[in-house]
Amino acid sequence: MSRQHSIIYEVTSDNIEESEEEIQAFINSQIGETSRETTTTTIEQCNNNTNQLDIFDYFKITNDEPRVRCIELPRVLTEEYNNLIYKFELEIAKNNFNIAEEYINQAISKIPFYPYGYFRKASLFWSIGDYRTHIRNLVYGIYTCTDFQNNFEKYKNIYKEMEEYRSEVFQNNYFNIDYWLCLFGASMALQEKKQQLCIKSYENALEFVLSEDHQVKLANSDLNTVLHRYECFYTIYNWLGIAHSDMERFDLEIDFYKKALDTNFNTETLPKLEQFQLAGLFNNIGGGLFSMNNPMQAIEQYNMGSSYFSEHSLLFLNRADAYHQLGKFKEAILDFEKCTALCKYKETMIDYLVNLADSYFSIGNFKRANQIFMDCYQKYGIKRASPFLVEVDMLSIWQQDSDKFLRFLNEAIDNVGDNVQMLKRLLIRKYFLEETDELYDKIVNFQNGLLERIS
What we know:
By secondary structure, this protein is mainly alpha-helical. Among the domains are: 20-231, no CATH class; 384-444. Helices cover 64% and strands 3% of the residues. The protein has helices spanning 20-30, 42-45, 75-93, 97-110, 116-127, 131-150, 152-156, 177-191, 195-209, 212-219, 233-246, 250-266, 275-291, 295-308, 313-325, 329-342, 346-362, 366-380, 382-385, 387-391, 394-397, 402-414, 420-434, 437-444; strands at 68-74, 170-176. The protein has a two-stranded antiparallel sheet with strand order 1-2. α1 packs across α6 (131-150). It holds the Pfam family TPR_8. Keywords: Repeat, TPR repeat. InterPro entries: TPR-like_helical_dom_sf (IPR011990), TPR_rpt (IPR019734), Ycf3 (IPR050498).
């Protein structure tokens, strides 16, 4: 009887530009260079290539191959890898995406044929809306799975042959091919809005994670030093919640986050979650409740999350939004201030500052709101500061000084670059002041073409 493989999402994407040879060359270039502090992935290296591949060109696995592989790796290497992953996840919790990317790049350079780094890097870019880079990292991760399976004999002893590791202690690390292909396939499906297929793929991966065989392997391992710790219930439950959120099934979304918490607290053989991961789950539960128009209950969950980890930037942002909706602007300001204190990522920082200025505007502190805008303008320039002009009532803050508002609007329009959506919103703002036919024609000539509400 042949093995039943997990469902893999089939997709042909114009975003897949790396040839098989380019990907293999990159992997080969990384092996033996584990001391590198960073790695430039094919996202930055690769020029546009007309040899675009169907996803299934990467699946060259036959049914008679073992689905779970065991590879011996130097303990010191996996400890370094796990430490980098920890630092990556910590910076993600703080919304410091640029620092997080540095850590995940370093982790990938340590063990470039292991798929987890590519999965998390793809997730990072998905969370900031860079779907092109997201899909390319997924493709890259899929290839590492199939390449590892097809060339297992090459990889299983590769570090034993390196001089720097010959005197090190080696230990077993297990690698479930189907689990990882399910995760990558589910992520493909989520981006393509194939939610049911996404959910099915995650459910298949979950069966393996919760299997007795996997739990026995974990129970017999030092979880601080093995890689199969990343074949984890937390990842599956969290992404199942996200998938249901994408379908606006907020009650089911919350159920999966709660399942992750229950599994963490009630199952002894599975890896325990870090404090910031627990905070993240409570944050997600709060987000589901907020989406169901229950801001007070959402705040209770955010409070619970902050008791586990007091530097979770997204949690404070969401709690501030809930306070803002309830009209508790002073409480919102305190949380937005916490966000700005924690943040080192420019794009996220500007979002925090915009929200902070809007909260000060809501309590009538126009002077402070204006100061936040001017500080941002002077530090980052008008291109970065342009969201203030469409998200905050700067015209009221400037006491209806329309000339001043127009000067900043025109400067922003001239410097907006290729951000078409921001250009459209700036033009709409300007139209509300001038209402000229020329401006209206410019607005309706955009692809979507309609004068839309400014949110």
